[in-house]
Amino acid sequence: MVRLYERARDAATEPGLKEIFATLAAEERKHCAIYTDLYELYTGKSAEGEELLGEYGKFIQLLIKEITQSLDFSSELTQEDLINRALQFEKNTLLYFSEVKPLFRGKAGALIEAVCREEKRHIQQLLECRELLRAGSA
To answer: pLDDT tens, 4-59?
Structure first.
């Protein structure tokens, strides 16, 4: 997750876009720490390499795969392509957490809700960046 935004920041040529991607990378670092802590709190296990079982587990694994596919890119992307990749990542992440949110109660549920609000804010920021980019190239 963080890697996507760091690579996008490095590939971006617009200073404002570089700044947005740097900010999103920092916020995703915080999110990763929250996810790991929540997983370990609920399971008592390390989050690394854990496989979810059953039909619901399979569904969650497929969502995770969908989210992480947008993280890799080897070719050069346009500024708009970078924004679109980031948007897809944020939308998929929001879908994932909207799906698993009911599994969390109390403080953990509040943390997931806060992350969902941040993901929505990220989507808004990226949409605004894309509009500015399109307006500047028109």
So the answer is: 788 888 888 888 889 999 999 999 888 878 877 776 776 666 655 555 557 756 66
Residue type (1 letter), 5: Y
Looking at residue 101, what DSSP letter applies?
G
What the block records as the tokens of 5 is 């935004």
Residue pair 70/85 in contact by the 8 Å Cβ criterion? yes
Please give the single-letter amino acid code of residue 60. Answer: I
Predicted TM-score of the model (pTM): 0.78
**Residue 121: is its pLDDT beyond 70?**
yes
> For residue 70, what are its two tokens?
């947008």
> Contact at 8 Å (CB) between 28 and 5?
yes
Assigned superfamily of 2-137: Ferritin, core subunit, four-helix bundle (1.20.1260.10)
Domain residue extents for the chain:
2-137
DSSP, residue by residue, 64-92: HHHHHHTT---S---HHHHHHHHHHHHHH
Alpha carbon distance 138, 112 (integer Å)? 39
